[in-house]
Each structure stands twice: as structure tokens, then as C-alpha cells.
Amino acid sequence: MNLQDLKYKLAKLSGLSGKSFLKLLDLSPEEIGGLIDLAGILKELKKAGVPHRICEGKNVALIFEKTSTRTRCSFEVSAADLGMHPVYLDPKSSQIGKKESIADTARVLGRMFDGIEYRGYGQEIVEELAKYAKVPVWNGLTNEFHPTQILADFMTIKEHFGALKGKKLVYMGDARYNMGNSLMVGSAKMGLHFTAAAPEKYRPDAGLTAECKKIAAETGGSVTFCTDPYEAVKGADVIYTDVWVSMGEPEEVWAERIAELSPYSVTASLMDAAGPQCRFMHCLPAFHDLKTSIGAEIYAKYGLTSMEVTDEVFESSRSIVFDEAENRMHTIKAVMAATLSPATSGE
Q: What contacts 41, CB < 8 A, 6 or more positions away?
């Protein structure tokens, strides 16, 4: 793999040049697959120690209204690898939506930076940033969608299984928010069979579900729901889960979530029910032991040594969570490279 391969792949994605990356619904299956392939090339170049500073001299703003380890590190390292200078704006360093409107912030930063990342609250915020910034805006996470995570997830699935189309992905737990939504959308777009295993009240939005079912009918995928966790995982290639309480939710919801979602905890017996081919995935951080302050607090209050996944599963050879975490960097780098590189002919 060399820089010529990189330039060729970028040329094939020239339609993304100058565009924002806000949600996977905006992209075609070919564009999503192209970004995953581009990430694979960038990963090989990095592993081989081949410099790829194709965005030399550009500057990017990273707005984090919600903090993160993986997302921040992925954007900062990727920007540096591409030859760019990232400026991190934490919740206290930006006046977005407080003393300055989102539109005004976008118009100011768009004159200073070549690209803007946003990680925070409503999807409407990142959409408004993109409307006024006049430079590419990237969604690092909103309440509704987490598209960079799904690119990393699908890159990891492809690395382990050789393909995406036709694979069965089961999401365990609360599927109402960004991860459940985005995995459903991504699966529909790329022809995977998506199942949300959860109580009825934890299903994704009905309108989004209907849209995804329509997309899946065209790609050969499917979207289903199941309240029985053991029935849901039969034949699953991937069991995926996330924390039961999202960032910003009040502490009071813990008792309710534990009571209602404990049957959906990913255990060794659940993995065995899926079959030997099944792999475990999690977007992290995970509450699989007592080595965190929240984990210790939950144990003190509820007597649980783990929550959404047991330590036995998390630390097993069937867990591919750290491959997934690394691939956040490679796929985020692909998004920035594709949207910031000058548009060229795909021939």
C-alpha cells in the first residue's frame, strides 16, 4: 500500500469533497463502503510508518460539549497524521448556544478553520453548524446519531468476517438513542440483518424504523425487534451493547434501567446461544467490572459486579472491542481526508 493507492481511493470519493458528515442517512452504501476502504488504506500506511500528510497546513476546530476519550484522541491524532492543526474547545471554552448563537459561531469558526467537529446534544445543532459554517462539519456524536462510531464498527466487522452484507448484528439493551439509531441505519444501508433485543419501550423511533426497513428492503438487509434475548441472538455474527444510562441523564434512572435491562446483559451463556462465530462489540466505555468509580458505586447500591456485559465476555477472545476502538481513529481520518481533499476526477 502506498500514497498512490490513497490518492486513487480519494479520487473515487471526490463526491464527498467539501461536504459535511452528519448522519449515515445522508450517504449512499457506496460512499459508506468507500470510506471504510479508505480507512483500511490509511490504517496500512500508519502501521507501515508511511507519512500521509495530505491535508498539510489546514486547521480544524473540535467542539466538545460532551467529553470523550476515544473521539477526542481519534480526531486529534488523525488531524496530526494528515498534517493538520487541531484546536480543542471543551464545554468551558466555547460560547456556542450560550453567549453566541450556533449560526454566529459557525460563521466565525468557518472563517478561521477548514473543518469543524461537533460532539454534544441535539442533531439540530450539528445540522445548523453545517448550514452556516461553509466548511465541512463532522458529527462526533449527538443525542440522535453517532456516525463515526458506526464506520469504525463496520470496518471492524469487515476485518473479522471479510464482508458486511448478510451479517446478523444484534443490539442488546436501550436502542432508542444514538447507538441503536445509527447501528440500525448503518445496517440497513449496508445490507446487514439488524435486530434490537430490548423491552418494547426501548425501541428506536417508529418513523426512523420505517425508513430503515424501506432502505433494508433495497439492500438485502432487514430490521427486526425481539423482547427475548436468547431468541434474538440465534445465529448472530455480532452481539453489540452499550451503557444503560447515557451521558447527561440523571442518576435516578439507574434503578429503572437496571431492573428493566438486566435480562439483556451480555453473558457467556448468551454468546454461546449465538454460536461460536459470534463476536462481542461495545462502543466503550463499558461497565464490566468494579475498576471505575461508577462501577464501584453501582455495586455499593445494587450489588452488581457488572452491568451491560460481564467481565468474562469483555475479556474473552470473542471480544473485539479494542480493534473497534482503534478503528475509530482510522475511520475518522478517512472522513476528514475525504471531505477536506480537493475534488478530483474518479477516473
A: 1, 5, 6, 9
